């Protein structure tokens, strides 16, 4: 029986890290091919193609590099791959997943994974996560689900997943919704049907910039007032509570929103922004009247990615309608 084709890209991250000398910090050195050799079971599941596209900590990834990775993944599907797996660092895993999900137009799954323990640590979780991610990418039930993150035996949808612990092995969760599925006795089990997705065209420009600011107690407005002068093309604010800012920030946002799109998200880590509850100056009703758009359940970091993509394909006028779906 012919095995399905599976494509894997390694970008670096903790899963690829080890220390050169005792007492030194770990750095990315382990290639994708070496990682694959640590999971011999994969040869029984699929005909695997693996490429090392980078050896970077995920904090050093950028949008243009991710577009090149996306191009690679699209080519693998055209070559007959049943699914694609990307291995990367966990620091920006939730953001990368969201970036790809807005652009992934295929029924075939794109699955991201990584590790919380380095390749040289006792109990390294990278091989198990890679094997799980490959099982998810090969499962027929994973089709039409867009981009997913697989970590610690759980499957998370790109739009919901967040890194909620800095160092724990069980670092990823989906606040408010829970995981989309689980791996149970090596079987892929989904807990709900595929979600509705909005796929965007590739950006036609990549030099634009989107700022992200966080509201905090007694914060001055100097950075906020500098946004337009610095040449930013959009602004996301991680607001208090259900999407609120101080009164003086509200005045600055009104001026900015006349020129560029402004999104207000919540900094809390879970839950949605409000729409029609708070009427004080700096509340969501006031901010909406001043021209800002509320992010709903989309977290500030993911809202920034959405806005960057929309501005890049000149569809920022669709921002409010897309956010109303989240």
TrEMBL record:
UniProt key word Hydrolase: yes
CDD domains listed in its UniProt record: L-asparaginase_II
Asparaginase/glutaminase C-terminal domain segment(s): 209-317
UniProt-recorded Gene Ontology molecular function terms: asparaginase activity
InterPro entries, sorted: AsnASE_II (IPR004550), Asp/glu_Ase-like_sf (IPR036152), Asparaginase/glutaminase-like (IPR006034), Asparaginase_C (IPR040919), L-asparaginase_C (IPR027473), L-asparaginase_N (IPR027474), L-asparaginase_N_sf (IPR037152)
Positions annotated to bind substrate: 58, 90-91
One Pfam family here: Asparaginase
Enzyme Commission code: 3.5.1.1
The keyword Hydrolase belongs to this UniProt entry's keyword annotation: yes
Record keywords, A-Z: Hydrolase
Residues the record marks as active site: 14
Uppermost EC category: hydrolase
Biological processes, Gene Ontology terms: asparagine metabolic process
PROSITE patterns recorded: ASN_GLN_ASE_3
Domain L-asparaginase N-terminal: 5-194
Similarity remark: Belongs to the asparaginase 1 family.
PANTHER family (UniProt xref): 60 KDA LYSOPHOSPHOLIPASE, L-ASPARAGINASE
Name of the protein in its database record: Putative L-asparaginase periplasmic
Species the sequence originates in: Pseudomonas fluorescens
Gene name as annotated: ansB_3
């Amino acid at each position: 029986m012919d095995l399905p084709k599976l494509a894997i890209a390694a970008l670096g991250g903790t899963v690829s890290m080890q220390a050169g000398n005792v007492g030194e910090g770990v750095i990315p050195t382990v290639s994708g091919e070496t990682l694959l050799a640590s999971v011999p079971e994969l040869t029984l599941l699929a005909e695997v193609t693996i490429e090392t596209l980078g050896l970077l900590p995920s904090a050093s990834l950028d949008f243009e590099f991710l577009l090149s990775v996306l191009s690679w993944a699209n080519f693998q599907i055209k070559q007959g791959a049943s699914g694609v797996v990307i291995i990367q660092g966990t620091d920006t895993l939730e953001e990368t997943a969201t970036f790809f999900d807005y652009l992934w137009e295929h029924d075939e799954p794109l699955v991201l994974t990584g590790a919380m323990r380095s390749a040289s640590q006792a109990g390294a979780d990278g091989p198990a996560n890679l094997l799980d991610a490959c099982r998810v990418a090969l499962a027929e039930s994973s089709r039409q689900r867009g981009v997913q993150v697989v970590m610690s035996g759980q499957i998370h949808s790109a739009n919901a997943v967040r890194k909620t612990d800095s160092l724990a092995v069980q670092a990823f969760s989906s606040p408010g919704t829970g995981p989309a599925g689980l791996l149970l006795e090596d079987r892929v089990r989904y807990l709900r049907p595929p979600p509705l997705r909005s796929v965007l065209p590739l950006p036609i420009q990549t030099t634009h910039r989107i700022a992200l600011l966080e509201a905090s107690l007694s914060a001055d407005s100097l950075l906020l007032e500098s946004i337009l002068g610095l040449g930013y093309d959009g602004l996301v604010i991680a607001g208090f509570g259900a999407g609120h800012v101080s009164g003086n920030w509200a005045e600055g946002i009104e001026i900015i929103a006349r020129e560029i799109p402004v999104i207000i998200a919540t900094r809390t880590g879970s839950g949605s922004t409000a729409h029609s509850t708070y009427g004080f100056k700096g509340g969501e009703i006031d901010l909406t009247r001043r021209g800002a758009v509320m992010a709903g359940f989309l977290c500030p970091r993911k809202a920034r990615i959405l806005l960057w993509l929309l501005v890049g394909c000149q569809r920022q006028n669709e921002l409010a309608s897309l956010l109303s779906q989240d």
